[in-house]
Amino acid sequence: MQRGEIAWGSWQVMNNRLDAHILPLLGDVPIKLVNAQRAQELVDRLGAEGFSSTTIAQYLVLLRKLLAHAVLMGIIAEVPALPRVKVRSQPRGAFGVGEYRRMVAVARALRGQPHPVLASLGKGDRFWIARELLYMPDELPWLIRWMVNTFVRPSDIKEVKHGHIDVVRGRHLYLRMRLPETKRHSQPMVSLRAAVHVYEALLSHQRQQGFGGPDDYLFLPHVRDRGQALAILNFFFKWTLETAGLAIGPLGQKRTLYCLRHTAITLRLLYGQGIDMLTLARNARTSVNMIERFYASTLSGEMNVGLLQSRRGRKEP
Question: Burial level of 304, CB count in 10 A (0-12/13-18/19+)?
Fold first, then answer.
């Protein structure tokens, strides 16, 4: 992590997984005795607690890294065989156009409204969100529209500042977003035209509140703890989905803010004229393989039958 090979967030996830399940189960076991049977105990423990096969496989990857480190340290001779978990890629629940519009409409209607949890709190009761923040943020409708028109990840939300964004006006109108590096991707991202109008409305609103400077954050700039700012936005986004009846995706997935990124990429694949996956993947800071496995996996040929049946026009002599 110090060398920049992995991100701080990835390092934290590893530590959390060690503390949550690997060390409680295997922490007192000498590394020489950690074998396939012990690893299967870990798989069974995680399965009993309802973890998905994808998460269980990630725990096994971490256990394998620990064993490989023991080999490098000369403590064991080789990494033992570990059980395999069959992982099935589960696409996130993207929103259809009608669902997207309904979600934005509900978020607008809830602006400034107290969250239902506020009414359940007694005078001395405490909640993880301060009482003064338990009202639907003005920014949430803008956040939803901005994410669907920019391809950003939820983790970008807590980091992006006005100084990271340029409005480009020329042959095309778009935002150039010079966001902090994520998952080893550092190239600027380009938005759709609609994101410019969303950003300008958000910026105007924030300037009225005394924010909007280059070092101010786009969303919840008054919340200094940026991890909490993202958690608050997730909390109110969940309320919006529940109110709109959109909390569960078409395949039974629990929808989260990440589904907005999925929606952005899916809608471009459906409605972007002639867009190629490589361009889309690079702009979204991901890979073509990830788009095919997760984002494009829910698309069918019938969704774009017009493009499938299209013909190249003859060139004029």
Answer: middle
Note the CATH number of domain 97-300: 1.10.443.10
Q: In sequence order, which residues have a C-beta less than 8 Å from that of residue 144 and are 6 or more positions away? A: 100, 103, 104, 107, 237, 240, 260
The rounded mean pLDDT for the chain is: 87
Q: Using an 8 Å Cβ cutoff, are 92 and 257 in contact?
A: no
Q: How far apart are CA 41 and CA 133, in angstroms?
A: 43
CA dist 78 and 62 (Å) reads 16
Query: pTM of the full predicted structure?
Result: 0.76
CA distance 181 to 159: 10
pLDDT tens, residue by residue, 130-143? 999 999 999 999 99
**Plot region of 78 (φ>0 → left; ψ -120 to 50 → alpha; else → beta):** beta
**Structure-block tokens of residue 32:** 């020489």
CATH 1.10.443.10 residue ranges of the chain are: 97-300
